[in-house]
Write a structure and sequence with these properties.
Elements (H helix, E strand, L loop, with lengths): L7 E14 L2 E14 L3 E5 L6 H8 L8 E10 L2 E2 L5 H7 L4 E4 L13 H13 L3 H14 L5 H4 L9 H13 L5 E5 L7 H17 L3 E6 L2 H4 L5 E6 L2 E7 H6 L4 H9 L39 H5 L5 E2 L5 E2 L8
Parallel strand pairs: 3-8, 3-9, 6-7, 7-8
Antiparallel strand pairs: 1-2, 1-4, 4-5, 9-10, 10-12, 11-12
The structure holds adenosine-5'-diphosphate and magnesium ion.
Adenosine-5'-diphosphate (ADP) binds next to strand 1, strand 2 and helix 1.
Length: 329
């Protein structure tokens, strides 16, 4: 097992998440290990169903049990191991040290309370702010995410905000307690494309201002190019490639990553370039292919790929890949 880098803010080791379904047990996250450094933007990328949300929820111990279960692993955050920490410790870390932004803000906003109340609550709870200082902090937060007429907006209810405004409000909320880490799970997927870019830029600026690390989860590898420092590519519950964003875009090594790159429009390439969807569908988690789960869709698969699961193997420049066929050879 890889040794924990001493400077890592968050170290995830062998994280395994299972869900019990009528048809059997799904291993949604299968022995996933990665580090998040302070101030870093780390993207977690892969098709729908590959285990991105389950990974994010497990980091905050938010997997609903039942049907879910964290079957194995360790999550080291600063001097704590979160999977064995008591509930009070985890509650304090959640929202205060590690904040989360979901794809659909209405899942985390309460429709019957004003924006002001919902923005203020964590500040009262974790920062002990009251009265004028609480109001001033709430106004400053809304201003920092460019919400016009913040004083009036504090009295609004979530449904009176547009989708983009609600997500900016979620960014403000996530920053309110100066967290060390923000986890954003497909924060822009529900929004239209022009607003997506604005929102990602806002998120990037906000984490930089607050010196927070960001775990940016998305199914769209084209979107993260401009924002991420590192990229972890996930397939069928496993990390199959991990490298700096630069390396992933210039010299991808896993055939799945290459397929993802060919299947999404890139901001840094001419639009005329032909998009090639990856053949086939992601596997059924109840009936995963033998060996490398990607082999039935892989144009380069050899016999060994059908027989043995390739381990994530580290190469130069911190570039790791789980593949029996090295596309560089
Ligand atoms: N509550 C649940 N009950 C049963 N299966 C689940 C549940 N949540 C997620 N899964 C399964 O776990 C796998 C990973 O899901 P998820 O983490 O949501 O994927 P992603 O976020 O990458 O789209 C999928 O096969 C999904 O069907
Ligand atoms: Mg998801």
């Amino acid at each position: 097992m890889a040794k924990t880098a001493p400077e890592a803010l968050l170290s995830v080791r062998d994280l395994t998440v299972e869900f019990a379904t009528d048809a059997g047990i799904i291993t949604a996250v299968d022995a996933v290990s990665f580090d998040l450094q302070a101030g870093e933007i780390l993207a977690l990328v892969g098709e729908s169903g590959c285990g991105k949300s389950a990974t994010a929820l497990a980091l905050l111990r938010l997997i609903a049990d039942p049907p879910g279960r964290i079957a194995n692993g360790e999550i080291h955050f600063r001097d704590r191991e979160l999977l064995s920490a008591d509930d009070a410790t985890v509650r304090d870390i959640r929202g205060n040290r590690i904040a989360m932004i979901f794809q659909e803000p209405m899942t985390s906003l309460n429709p019957v309370y004003t924006i002001g109340r919902q923005l203020g609550e964590p500040l009262q709870l974790h920062k002990n702010l009251r009265g004028d200082s609480l109001l001033a902090k709430c106004l400053a937060l809304l201003e920092s995410v460019n919400i016009p007429e913040p004083r009036r907006r504090l009295q609004s209810y979530p449904h009176q905000f547009s989708g983009g405004m609600r997500q900016r409000m979620m960014i403000a909320m996530s920053m309110s307690c100066d967290p060390d880490i923000v986890i954003a799970d497909e924060p822009t997927t529900a929004l239209d494309v022009t607003i997506q870019a604005q929102l990602l830029e806002l998120l990037q600026a906000q984490v930089a201002n607050h010196r927070a690390a960001l775990l940016l989860i998305t199914h769209n590898l084209g979107v993260v190019a401009r924002y991420a420092d590192r990229v972890n590519v996930m397939y069928a519950g496993r990390i199959v490639e991990s490298a700096s964003a630069d390396e992933i875009y210039r010299t991808p090594r896993h055939p799945y990553t290459i397929g993802l790159l060919r299947s999404v429009p890139r901001l840094d390439q001419p639009i005329s370039e032909k998009l090639l969807p990856i053949e086939g569908q992601p596997p059924n988690p109840l009936d995963l292919p033998s060996g490398c789960a990607f082999h039935p869709r892989c144009p380069l698969a050899i016999d060994k790929c059908r027989a043995e699961v390739p381990a994530l193997t580290r190469h130069a420049n911190g570039h790791a890949v789980a593949c029996w066929v090295d596309v560089r050879d």
